[in-house]
Amino acid sequence: MTPQEMESRIVRYGELQPCKTAFIDAHTPGSDQKENFTIIGGGVSESPDQHVHITIPHGFNIGAAGQPPKCRNSLHDHRTAEAFFVLSGRWRFFWGRYGDAGEVVLEKGDIFNIPTGIFRGFENIGTDYGMIMAILGGDDAGGGVMWAPQVIEDAADHGLVLAESGKLYDTKKGEALPSGVSPMPLMAADELAKRGEPTTAQVLPNHVARYWDMVALSDKTPAKVIGETGILRDKPGFEVNFITRGSASDTTTSFDYPSVLMPVTGHWKVTWDGGSATLAPGDTMSVPEGMAHTVLPSMTGEAAIYQIVGTADPAGLTWQG
């Protein structure tokens, strides 16, 4: 594959195109400054304004959320896996019916594999604009987002109505639900009762991995972070590996499914038969299935990169608290 062809599979951090109206809480005070990015796959955006950088199916989606300090993402759930790692900033993740069942604070490089069946939200508690990168299971990311009832009610008070089809309508722009289209119903009591309320102590050991722990574990060989035998054991339709300078190898690697490379620190050179490319933190590179390649740091200093590989596994863990 030529360098030009591969460049079309690389999304540079500085070229990311945000959407500020991606979700139902886009007008809700406290959430109205967030930016959503869909990097690979269709994602779960509810807005036609969302730009998709790479549409090639991978078996999973890659996205991102960028938020200024004190901005939060409202309580929601997905039908498939959702994992986040912090690219920049300091973030508080919280969960439960009202967001008060438990919480964890994540720093740069930390990763959180959140099981389905739990309402979750997050906020930037740092002092600068921050970015978290998201991995969502499935090519259709589970068919959308399920919102806590109070989020839908608050959104309506600020002009945004979600149709049962999953499409947003902005009454501030004069939009209204088309004839015959009903609003998204609030989640029924029996469905709400199925949502987990795990404590922080229950979630942390099996769902959160810290950057510096992964650096230590990957000093000789890459660490499997999410996978059947990973630090966070799960089969969400993808595996996540963590590679550092100490565990990087000039041996070529290829996979049966598409893979994605996402640097956290340092610069990384990816080489294949036909060319090479250098990636920086915040860049995302899609590697075709079956393509042999090497991944090596290109400069001195701290260097760590996440590698996401598609699998044929099901949708991942559902909380069984």
TrEMBL record:
InterPro entries: Cupin_2 (IPR013096), RmlC-like_jellyroll (IPR014710), RmlC_Cupin_sf (IPR011051)
Domain Cupin type-2: 69-132
Any Pfam family hit: Cupin_2
The name this protein goes by in its record: Cupin domain-containing protein
Source species taxonomy: Bacteria, Pseudomonadati, Pseudomonadota, Alphaproteobacteria, Rhodobacterales
